[in-house]
Specification:
- The chain is α+β, with helices and mostly antiparallel strands.
- It has a domain of 131 residues: Immunoglobulin-like, CATH 2.60.40.1880.
- The protein contains 4 helices and 10 strands.
- The radius of gyration is 34 Å and the shape is globular.
Length: 199
């Protein structure tokens, strides 16, 4: 019988192991999930995270003017109007009407201009422009503008929290800020509750 050297046997075993590759291990980590390319990841992030909106600066309250509400009935339905006005006068640069629980707020403005088909609102949430319906009033020598806007609109939601709006019609801008200690902030919140909550 031929006796083989232990060194020769060890070398042969090492050669076989090298040819077969490293042995599998039960402790090997699971195959990692594929990573999206950087461009795809950025696209997903942009869909999830909204672009920041530059906040408009808050205006100062106008002396003698504030936000006031009045309730009425319209064809048997409860209606409320919120207006920025001087009490006991026709000085009312903007009003908002709604039916109880409708969720739709109708913005109105009597302009002394013509040819404007949009109105722009700013508040802490930024600035937005809305299409407006126009009706010409000869006695006012201008258009009466109205725009129906959902009460969930971010500009209106910001107005509910801050108590101020900035209205722009053409080249005219109106600052509509509540006086902080007049009770106007509560009237604004009550108005939104009336418009957004069904009985």
């Amino acid at each position: 019988m031929t006796t083989r050297s232990p060194l020769i046997l060890a070398a042969a075993v090492a050669g076989l192991l090298a040819a077969c590759g490293p042995a599998a291990s039960n402790d090997a980590p699971a195959t990692p999930a594929p990573v999206a390319p950087a461009s795809d990841a950025a696209s997903v992030a942009s869909e999830i995270i909204p672009a920041p909106v530059q906040a408009a600066p808050a205006p100062s309250p106008q002396e003698g003017m504030d936000w006031y509400t009045r309730a009425s009935m319209d064809d048997g339905q409860s209606k409320m109007r919120l207006a920025y006005e001087m009490p006991d006068s026709d000085d009312q640069p903007m009003g908002i009407n709604c039916l109880r629980g409708s969720g739709i707020l109708s913005i109105d403005h009597q302009s002394h201009q013509t040819g404007n088909e949009t109105l722009t609102l700013s508040s802490q949430g930024g600035t937005r422009t809305y299409p407006a319906k126009t009706t010409f009033y000869e006695e006012m020598n201008g258009d009466y503008l109205t725009a129906d806007i959902p009460g969930t609109d971010p500009i209106l939601a910001a107005f509910r929290q801050t108590g101020w709006l900035r209205l722009t019609i053409g080249e005219r801008t109106y600052d509509l800020a509540a006086h902080p200690d007049s009770g106007a902030l509560q009237r604004i919140d009550d108005f939104f509750s009336f418009c957004m909550t069904r009985e």
